[in-house]
Amino acid sequence: MFVKTGDKVKVIAGKDKGKEGTVLSVNVKKNRVVVKGVNKIKKHQKPSQANANGGVVESEGSIHASNVKVISKKEDK
């Protein structure tokens, strides 16, 4: 796989096209990556001891690795 955890990437396809972020995790078997601030999803949580109120929790979902490209140091300027 061409991306690694910690790489800065740009989304080139999908609803978040044009957004940039760092790779939080990589799933090599499914060829998917989780990028910080991209593909936000909402999950409903029941109240528990850890989260007494419950409610809606927003987090990043995974996207296919072919929809991102690594930003080099030269392009970052």
Automatic annotation (TrEMBL):
Keywords on record: Ribonucleoprotein, Ribosomal protein, RNA-binding, rRNA-binding
Gene3D superfamilies, A to Z: 2.30.30.30
Pfam family, one: ribosomal_L24
RNA-binding found in the keyword field: yes
Recorded GO MF terms: rRNA binding; structural constituent of ribosome
Recorded superkingdom: Bacteria
GO cellular component assignments: ribonucleoprotein complex; ribosome
GO term, biological process aspect, one: translation
Positions of the KOW domain: 2-29
Coiled-coil ranges per UniProt: none
CDD domains: KOW_RPL26
Keyword Ribosomal protein: yes
Recorded family membership: Belongs to the universal ribosomal protein uL24 family.
Functional summary from the UniProt entry: One of two assembly initiator proteins, it binds directly to the 5'-end of the 23S rRNA, where it nucleates assembly of the 50S subunit.
NCBIfam families found in the cross-reference section: rplX_bact
Complex and partners: Part of the 50S ribosomal subunit.
Protein's name in the database: Large ribosomal subunit protein uL24
Native organism: Lactobacillus ultunensis DSM 16047
Organism phylogeny: Bacteria, Bacillati, Bacillota, Bacilli, Lactobacillales
